[in-house]
Write a structure and sequence with these properties.
Helix content is about 25%, strand content about 25%. By secondary structure, the chain is α/β, with parallel strands linked by helices. The protein folds into two domains: about 15-120 and about 265-330, FAD/NAD(P)-binding domain (3-Layer(bba) Sandwich); about 125-260, FAD/NAD(P)-binding domain (3-Layer(bba) Sandwich), CATH 3.50.50. About 45% of the residues are buried. Bound molecules: flavin-adenine dinucleotide.
Length: about 400
């Protein structure tokens, strides 16, 4: 059990100040690095269930054998030592004293500043969801998907995603395209493609719209070219072991891969944290949480002002975490927060041995056609990114 820790809330002595970071994902780790760079003497407590980092973007390659879980689940002991942080193996469960005290499964922890970076949670309301494999669940479900792909001799594989009706930005469709194209191409290379029907279903008439019109056109064209059955504008309603039921009827499926919409973590319910319509923590353009002093949020846990297409992506999580950490350090120095994040979508939609590059900023939207180099760029990016934490 974590002992009750009280550090003297609101201390003026800078050398005794402590910040709590919740989580050990993209946003949390970037926040830690940024805090350490800008405030070398700061005490940093990290509350996260395990001292490990899961690199989700690489999990798309687990089902087809391109990655093993150990390649993507990075132990953080060495990184934490290097950064001089104290890891509390626990989950956040509540917040009191205007953000100065975090309740955890192992006790309470006081802070002089707080950065919440505990990611999102997936909506689990759909009946029969247990019959689908959820790619948001980390490496375990991806190994199960690999097993099922090897077991199946033929049949129908359904791939789908949906959003959060209360907050359109709280969805993640990109990886579903990657699984779809990746598995299609892998089956083709194995000479088994003709034994499978691949079906793509989603409530959107134009899937992947946040990637931009050109990307939607390109993705749909590519799906048709690969002989994938499209069920667009069909809202998923329930799953069974062998079928998918949508607003337009039901179809048989031997294997279902489904990415549900996102919402905020359950522990937010027992806190004064302000919430967006979709249940995330409402932030301002400086990643500050309204109404609570020196409390920040970064990454999938938050809802941030920006254009409608602003993605919930690791890259945005990094940008927000850097802004949050810099603003918090500035506040300790008596400087008002001024760091923001650039709304930027950078996405390589991987297709097993090729990839499609999509970029979107306030200035424009570009889609570069499928090319082997983008697949290799995605792999190189992973290697380079993970070097920071090994
Ligand atoms: C299959 C897949 C593929 C993806 N591909 C890409 C891609 O190619 N490019 C891209 O940019 N993005 C991609 N994403 C999205 C990206 O992974 C997320 O946007 C990113 O992980 C968000 O970072 P985060 O730090 O906010 O949350 P997370 O990375 O989810 O980290 C959350 C952390 O908080 C911890 N935590 C959770 N609850 C608690 C609690 N109560 N208390 C303490 N700690 C807690 C978790 O253990 C975890 O360490 C992909 C996602 C998936 C699922």
């Amino acid at each position: 059990m974590l002992d009750f820790v009280h550090m003297g809330i609101g201390r003026t002595d800078p050398s005794s100040r402590r910040v709590t970071v919740v989580g050990s994902g993209f946003a949390a780790l970037t926040a830690i690095r940024t805090l350490r760079r800008h405030a070398p003497g700061l005490g940093i407590d990290v509350v996260a269930p395990r001292a490990e980092f899961v690199y989700y973007p690489g999990t798309i390659w687990i089902p087809t054998g391109g990655r093993e879980p150990d390649d993507l689940v990075i132990p953080l002991g060495r990184f934490f030592d290097r950064m001089g942080v104290t890891h509390h193996p626990a989950e956040a469960t509540g917040l009191s004293e205007d953000g100065r005290r975090l309740a955890t499964t192992a006790g309470e922890l006081a802070n002089d500043g707080l950065i919440i970076a505990c990611g999102g949670r997936f909506l689990d309301r759909l009946p029969g969801l247990e019959h689908a494999i959820l790619p948001c669940g980390g490496t375990g479900p991806m190994l199960r998907l690999r097993e099922r792909l090897h077991e199946l001799d033929g049949g129908t594989i359904a791939f789908g995603f949906s959003g959060n009706p209360e907050e359109p930005s709280a969805m993640r469709g990109g990886p579903v395209f990657e699984f779809l194209f990746g598995i299609e191409r892998w089956l083709r290379k194995q000479g088994r493609r003709d034994r499978f029907e691949l079906v793509f279903f989603t409530p959107a008439e134009k899937p992947g719209q946040r990637l931009g019109e050109k990307a939607v056109e390109r993705l749909v064209r590519e799906m048709r070219r690969c002989g994938i059955t499209l069920r667009l504008g069909e809202k998923p309603q329930r799953f069974s072991e062998r079928s998918v039921e949508t607003s337009a009827g039901s179809f048989d499926a031997d294997l279902i891969l489904f990415m549900p919409g996102m919402t905020g973590n359950a522990w937010f319910d027992d806190t004064p944290l302000p919430r967006s319509p979709g249940g995330m923590i409402q932030a301002d353009a400086h990643c500050r949480v309204a109404g609570l002093e020196r409390v920040y949020v970064a990454g999938d846990a938050g809802s941030f002002p920006g254009p409608g297409w602003m993605p919930k992506q690791a890259h945005m999580a990094d940008l927000q975490a850097a802004a949050a950490a810099r603003n918090l350090v500035a506040e300790f120095d008596g400087v008002p927060p001024r760091h923001g994040y650039k709304a930027e979508l950078m996405c390589i939609v991987d297709m097993h041995d090729r990839g499609l590059l999509v970029t979107r900023t306030e200035k424009g939207n570009r889609v570069l056609p499928p090319f082997r180099g983008w697949h290799w760029a995605k792999r190189l990016f992973e290697w380079n990114y993970l070097r920071n934490y090994r």
